[in-house]
Structure formats: structure tokens, C-alpha cells
Amino acid sequence: LMTGCAINNPAAVPSANAQLTPLSSVTRDLMQLPPPRGKVVVAVYAFRDQTGQYKPSPDSSFSTSVTQGAASFLVKALRDSGWYTSVERENLQNLLTERKIVRALEMPQEKNAPLVHLPQLLPAAIIIEGGILAFESNVRTGGVGANYLGIGITTQYRVDQVTVNLRSIDIRSGQIVNSVSTTKTILSYEIKPSVFKFVNFKDLVQFEAGITRNEPAQLCVQEAIEAGVIHLTLQGLQDGLWALRDDKDWSHPVLQRYLKETGGHPPLPPPLYGEHQ
Predict the structure, then answer these.
(1) 3-class secondary structure for the chain?
(2) How far apart are CA 27 and CA 221, in angstroms?
(3) What is the CA radius of gyration of the chain?
(4) Residue 182 forms beta bridges with which residues?
(5) Cα–Cα distance between 265 and 144 in angstroms, integer?
(6) Among 129, 231, 259, 260, fewest CB within 10 Å belongs to which?
(7) Are the beta carbons of 267 and 36 closer than 8 angstroms?
(8) Nearest to 40 by CA among 143, 160, 123
(9) What is the DSSP letter of 161?
């Protein structure tokens, strides 16, 4: 009977339907940034895992501790912010191959047929580089338990930590314009109640249950990257590299909240990027 209850437990059966990735508080802050005076064209070539860490045995000796798709998270964060126009650079060769195919197909087959020209690729003003710098496991562990007359409960927790770095580079001079590092903790915990009790002289009742919650590491990497994009955008505003559409937006609650973390100062006009778009 107890086995049947465990199988029919809705919490133990994963959902069969795919859904959009849930929005975190940092994602909402990123999407609520006030609009810029002009979007900045940025290129992302790679955003690599620089930790060199793999999952401990017996899970796998070949599976890495953090995601290898952080560049996709970065491109999405830049687009969600509304401040940047991302251009394809990670798989640039595939794009160039397709453009060659289009040119071959659009060549005039008949005399005096009009020639169709592909538009030029959009050049970037800023390159965003960086990577996942560190993944520290078991930064903090602990637990607590209590038992009274055979009835008790035990809890355990573990905290990991991931650190990412983003830096913006001016393509004209190669100068590193800004650099920011963000850190996100990854929380895992377990709650386990138990019963071990004699109901009469000969009959013994034993019952155990438990629930474990592991914060997805890839979502924590995504959140750290999104926070880095917000801080990178704010640093560019403070240094006068780009500007808000309306100067009154400096009082926006999202900007004010992140300014308090960095000890911000007023912007330095005029902006260098985003004016021409």
C-alpha cells in the first residue's frame, strides 16, 4: 500500500509538458531596464567554461560541473535587456556559407536579368568576452535533526558557488572598456522525517519519507550572466559610453537598486555608442 502511494505521488512524477524557463528576479530586472537612446551593436564569439571541473564520481568522469552553453545565455540576456543588438559570430562560418549559397542561387540565369544583392553584414561596436571563472562545491554545508520517542526529522543543506566574468572591448582600439564579475550561490537541501516506534509489545512501526531540492546549476549560471549584463550596462552609463533615452530614468528603481551595490556616480556625457542608431 505504501509503495502504491509513493508511485502515485504527484510530486514524484515529472511533468510531461515542456514550458518556458521560469523568470527569476534578476531576469525581470533585466527586462525592466529603461530604454536606451540607441542600441549598441555587440558581438559574442565565445563564453567558455574556464573552471576545468567535472562532476564527481560516480556521476560521470566526462560530464562537466557547469553548462557549456553559456554563450547562448549571454546572447539571450543581451537581447532581453533591450540595450543591445547582437550579431552572429559564434557560428559565423555557417552564416557565410549560407550567404554564398544565396549568391549562387540569385545569379542571373538570363541575359539582362536584374542582379539581387545581399545586404552587408552589420559590424559590431563592442565585443563581449569573458567566461565562467569558478565553480566551488560545498562552500557551506550543515544540517540539524531532532528525535523524540522514535519520531524525528532531519534536514541537511549544501551551498555551491559559481562566478562569471564579463568584459566589453572597443573594437576600434582594443581597449577593455569595462569588466564585471558576478557570483551566484547554488542551494541544495534535504528534509527527511522518520518514525520508529513500537505500537504495542511486539509490533514495530517504521516510516521514512524525504524530499530533496537541488537548485539547477545552469539557471544559476544564467542568473549570474544576467546580473553581469545589468552591471555592465550600468557601468557604461556611468562612464558616459551610452545614454538613457530620458535622463529622468536615472530615478528608475532598478537602476537605483543596482547603483547602491556599486556606489554609483552620475553619468559622464556624451555617449560614445548607440547615438547613430
Answers:
(1) CHHHHHHCCHHHCCCCCCCCCCCCHHHHHHHCCCCECCCEEEEECCCEECCCCECCCCCCCCCECCCCCHHHHHHHHHHHHCCEEEEECCCHHHHHHHHHHHHHHCCCCCCCCCCCCCCCCCCCCEEEEEEEEEEEEEEEEEEEEEEECCEEEEEEEEEEEEEEEEEEEECCCCCEEEEEEEEEEEEEEEEEEEEEEECCCCCEEEEECCEEEECCHHHHHHHHHHHHHHHHHHHHHHCCCCCECCHHHHHCHHHHHHHHHHCCCCCCCCCCCCCCC
(2) 12
(3) 26
(4) 164
(5) 45
(6) 260
(7) no
(8) 123
(9) E
What CA–CA distance (Å, rounded) separates 229 from 224? 9
With a threshold of 0.85, does the pTM exceed it?
no
Q: In sequence order, which residues have a C-beta less than 8 Å from that of residue 84 and are 6 or more positions away?
A: 39, 40, 41, 42, 78
User: What is the full per-residue pLDDT of the chain (277 aa) written as tens digits?
Assistant: 444 454 455 555 556 688 888 888 899 999 999 999 999 999 999 888 888 888 777 656 677 888 888 999 999 999 999 999 999 988 889 999 988 888 877 766 666 666 667 788 899 999 999 999 998 888 888 888 888 878 888 899 899 899 999 999 999 988 999 999 999 998 898 998 888 877 777 777 888 888 888 888 888 999 999 999 999 999 888 888 888 898 888 888 998 888 888 776 555 555 556 654 4
Helix (H, G, I), strand (E, B) or coil at 121: coil
Amino acid letter, residue 211 = I
Residue 181: its H or E element:
strand 176-198
The helix or strand, by DSSP H or E, that contains position 130, with its residue range, turns out to be strand 126-148
Residue 183 grid coordinates: 557570483
> Is 181 exposed, middle or buried, given 0-12, 13-18 or 19+ CB atoms closer than 10 A?
middle
